[in-house]
Amino acid sequence: MSPALSLDRRGFLRTGAAAAGGLLIAFPWPKPAAAAVSSATLNAFVHVGSDDAVTLIIHKGEMGQGTVTSLAMLLAEELECDWKKIRTEFAPIDPAYGGFQGVVGSGSIRSSFGPLRQAGAAAREMLVQAAAARWSVDKSQCRADNSSVVNTATNARLTYGALAEDAGKLPKPVNVALKPAVQFSVIGKSRPRLDTPEKVDGRTIFGIDVRVPGMLHAVVARCPVFGGKVASFDMTRAKAVPGVKFIAQISNGVAVVADNTWSAMQGRNALQIQWDEGKTASVNSAAITRSFVEHMDQPGAVAKKDGDAEAALASAASRIEASYEVPFLAHAPMEPLNCVAHVRADACEIWAPTQMPSAAHRAGMSVTGLRADQVMVHSEYMGGGFGRRAADDYVAEAVQISKAAGVPVQVTWTREDDMQGDLYRPASYTHFRGALDGDGWPVVLHARMACPPFGGLRNGVSSTGVEGVSTMPYAIPNVLVEYHAVDPGIPVSYWRSVGYSQNTFFMESFLDELAVAGKKDPLEVRRRLLAKQPRMLAALELAAGKSGWGQPLAAGHGRGIGIVNNIGSFTVQVAEVSVVAGKLKVHRVVCAVDCGQVVNPAGVEQQIQSGIVYGLSAALKGSITIDKGRVQQGNFNHYDVLRIDEMPKVEVYLTPSSAPPSGIGEASVPGIAPAVTNAIFAATGKRIRKLPIAAAELA
Amino acid sequence: MAIQFTLNGKPQVVDAPPAMPLLWVLRDSLGLTGTKFGCGMALCGACTVHLNGQPIRSCVMPVGSIAGKRITTIEGLSPDGSHPVQRAWVEADVPQCGYCQSGQIMTAAALLAKTSSPTDADIDEAMRNNICRCGTYQSIRQAVHLAAQLRAGGAK
Asked: N or C, which end of chain B has less CB nearby within 10 Å?
């Protein structure tokens, strides 16, 4: 680390709040304690102060998914520390944190479950050894208990604070034996979130709240057409806007830097820019759908093949087919994209609300040409992420602007910038053919799928384009899944639950269609086809039982099932809806989940609720459409989301499991749409094959 | 132009163009970042503050129009997080990402000041224009009811 960076990292205090009310908020960064208190680093995750404060370093970003609390619980389980004395800080990028600090793919608990308990155990062992040395006894005579070590022969106690300095000098133990699950006292018991108190009084510093001395505020005029560039621009009027300090062209547009965000926006409004719109300027949503449909009569790259679907279709007792479609979707986190950067000749500091600190770090190096050790990334609290903040485009922009302006700059995206400059959930289209045997049980599933690819093609297949259909859990003997990569030039990327977000809607809807065609109860068909999937089946039975499946409902009401096996977990939802006079209401959602060993049950319930709301927003309302290469929606008036008065009653049930923990953040997003549309079919006989659910379809 | 108003119980003077929205005065000029930018068009509720006790959207409120009035932000709702709505929010562990919660809390506090024992329908009506993308709605509803009880029971 360069001296300049170390100075900033250690000495800097955010001054914005100080100017307002005398409130000083320090960096979320390992920092020296006040002079009277010393702090010992027991390992990368655990620091213990002489005042008994235990600082747990959180190496995964917090975007609402509860990492601060759940990762602290993993450390605390073995550390045996007093929960009330815990404080947390976000980690710097450092190989000591295992090499990957991104928060994507619902992976934080899965990847941390072993390493963090081990880190907690190793720190505890050092404290126990320090106590044993102090008492000149064998460490087998010492036991850690609630931030103290107890001498079991004498009942003498030494606090962690009193032992910290000695412990910090000991060699770090490796492979400490961990508690068996039956002895867990923290894991598996609900804990309130550690970050709640400061989220109810405005104290939490999100990325957009970062204030650095001398910082200016910027917005960027970007080409409204994807892939377009600045042809020429005139800044005369913009420079005259009060508060505007600096205007510069950057790689993707023109940046206006001012002494506050509003002045920067006024300056941007006054820019006159000629754009070279490029080849995407002719793209529109209807043409994109047509290009999907044109591929439906041609074989695609094979993503999955079991048995012989064509032969089985030819000989089957009955056949059905249907086409499904979904639009592009924006992520629309409540906190619009933003980033602060400060570029100097020999250093670059980045304050980013990011799901991928390593990508932010690389962006800083790439833009500045500086070495890895000259670029520092501060991970900030995120006001939602949902996959959008895994990208680095908004970081690279901030670094470019600070480099050009020569001062620290915060770039803020307006809601319109955020919604029209997203990396979208791909629009997608699938044509299914299916067949039943003479008893009405499904024996063939053929899916031909088309969507813009991302994450690379393997043998012509985008795994994110087919997952959810290619990975479906049902025992159907003849399965063929084909994929067409159709790329209209609209940027696409990870959106909470990725390919499952659309493909589970397709799969679970068509499975319902097969059940109906075979005159079977949708639950009965799933039971039969999941007979060899015990965890999925257990979740299905739990959800069915709790939902009252099969029991009579009022006229106009119906129940529907949506299941998914993603991120290692098994999730079943039963939605109850009504359609009265063409108006849809989702009354109740029962969700059963097997996500393996649960760390924080309250956190799991929050994530299930969250995924249902996110998925329901998309199912009922979400649609990004393209005209002339431009996104037509800019704000929540045209891209509406679920409101409190539309919130169904959600009930969450966890199946007891001793399996290793699996993911939860994306578990309940995919299944809600088909649970609702299958319930609409049960209520009305109307099959919804396109999202968002159109009022006209229900009339 | 110098504009005087009362901010969180104290006199405040700012020098800002009268058309500048209060949101940016709070966040960029005064450093009160608890009030959030979400949409800029009074569509999401993240920027909600109280003007003379009424909930308003600071992102569309020109600072020139608040001269002489009382503004309360999340930082001034209580000196120590002890407002019944804040206590209820902690008790129900409402926030996830937390970004919308300043606005949710300010809207809920204004609802309870007017309607001491709100029904679910009252809550829907008052809170439906505060968007939460994390999906904390069920917890918000529970917390508003809890806050009403805390208010009725006085300080605990």
From this structure: C
Identity (one letter) of the amino acid at A5? L
Establish whether the linkage from the previous residue to A692 is cis, with ω within 30° of 0: yes
- Min CA distance, B118 vs chain A (Å)? 14
Both tokens assigned to A315: 């000989």
Cα–Cα nearest to A391, from A324, A337, A332: A337
- Each residue of A499-540: pLDDT tens digit? 999 999 999 999 999 999 999 999 999 999 999 999 999 999
**How is the beta sheet containing B2-7 ordered, strand by strand?**
B10-15, B2-7, B70-72, B48-51, B54-57
Q: Is the ipTM of this complex over 0.90?
A: yes
Q: How many CB pairs under 8 A join A and B?
A: 198
Contact B97 A384 (CB under 8 A): yes
Instruction: Name the minimum distance, in Å, from the CA of B124 to any CA of chain A.
Output: 5
Residue type, A490: I
Please tell me the distance from the alpha carbon of residue B73 to that of residue B126, in angstroms, as a whole number.
18
Cβ-defined contacts of A314-318 (< 8 Å, 24+): A316/A435, A316/A436, A316/A437, A316/A443, A316/A444, A317/A435, A317/A436, A317/A437, A317/A438, A318/A435, A318/A436, A318/A517, A318/A518
CA angle A642–A643–A645, rounded 5-degree value: 125
Chain A residue numbers with beta carbons less than 8 Å from the beta carbon of B8 are: 21
As a whole number of Å, the CA-based R_g of chain B is: 15
For residues A119 and A44, the answer to whether their CB atoms sit within 8 Å is yes
